[in-house]
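hey so i finally got around to running the thing on that chain from the lab meeting. sorry it took forever, my laptop kept dying and i had to restart like 3 times. anyway pasting the input first so we r on the same page abt which one it is
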Amino acid sequence: MHADGQVVVGPPKSAASCRSVALDAETVRVLTRHRERQEQLSATAGARWRDSEYVFTTADGAPLRPDYLTGRFRRLVAASGLPPVRLHDLRHGAATLALAAHTDLKVVQAMLGHASIALTADTYVSVLPEVAHHAARETARLVLSAASALGRDLSV
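ok and heres what got predicted. didnt touch it at all, straight out
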């Protein structure tokens, strides 16, 4: 958060908030390139560089203010012509996409840093139509397979 124009760092909300985040190879590549650009900025800035240890910073190394990020995101969404979405809504989208990719709900809970799987399921996960259809197909496959194994014909 920020107060009086300064970023205020505080403890995470819960023990579940302290976690490692798994990244795919492409994201690691993008972040590595970003870090290389930051090192170039640091070398150019010299003594003016503020080593904040943040991944995303201003041109002089200072942490980005949360209100700046929110406003910048809002402007980018508006310029894209897409329906309005809040920055925080990206968490909902990430959870929904993870579910669509058949990620176990317990893994999604850990990704989001939730102490309770109920919070993840009730608040952050929407069922996409494709996921619902996949579930229906897989459920029917299991039932038909079990019936076949028992020598039962369920066709009408």
